[in-house]
């Protein structure tokens, strides 16, 4: 028996919580991995494609064939934008403060709301208020310390660009997922991202494996499972039902989540504001969810798996 709309929404919210837990492991794992940032981004996508390939190519070839030219092109565009997000945000971490980079890169829900408005979709006041409140929580835990240094300002600009790119990735994914299964979409998207990042690594001379130890490969595998397969893939799964506003706002929970994980795993003491910030972000997310619940958008039946 198919779940009711309310039941399906509860399942999506549960899966979203798992996804946020997965992406929250991303920054601590990257910090603990002895490899170039762009190479880490390449391997997490390439390994994800490798993990998805047996399932998609053996059991989901029909879904791939039914995607259609428009869906394939949009999935590839999402992959390029995801590569752009990684390519802008990860280098910014070495140019500006981690606090500024994190705060600016997580402006995603603001840009998502702005883009939707520019496309003619009216966003209720609760969505704007919830996104602003949630982002205030991010500022509480990370802050933005703009520097007069030219290098730091360039890093801030890259991080901001990464946040805008993430908004495009979420919106494209929401559109494709209306008619395409999660596995087919993520396979095409991640494969495109991996190819783009491979070219960038080769051009920039980033090492793709030379000198990597066993611990590095294990951490890359863990990053792929946690942040890519459980994180991004589940986000792509739930964005169809929850919508881009709820999904992108929930991603803000990655900031305090990463801080708390780093405290437990890496021994990095989280800022005192991490705990109240978590409550503020959750309050903002609750406003967005409440607004979306009051104006549900009809969707076609869930395609495939």
From TrEMBL:
Keywords noted in UniProt: Membrane, Transmembrane, Transmembrane helix
Which residue spans adopt a coiled-coil conformation according to this UniProt entry? none
Instruction: Give the source species.
Output: Streptantibioticus ferralitis
Q: Which PANTHER family match?
A: ACYL-MALONYL CONDENSING ENZYME-RELATED (PTHR22911), EAMA DOMAIN-CONTAINING PROTEIN (PTHR22911:SF76)
The residues covered by the EamA domain are 13-142, 154-289
Q: Which family does it belong to?
A: Belongs to the EamA transporter family.
Q: Does the keyword Transmembrane feature in the UniProt annotation?
A: yes
| Name under which the protein is recorded | DMT family transporter
From the record, give the transmembrane residue ranges.
Answer: 41-59, 71-92, 98-118, 125-146, 152-172, 184-205, 272-289
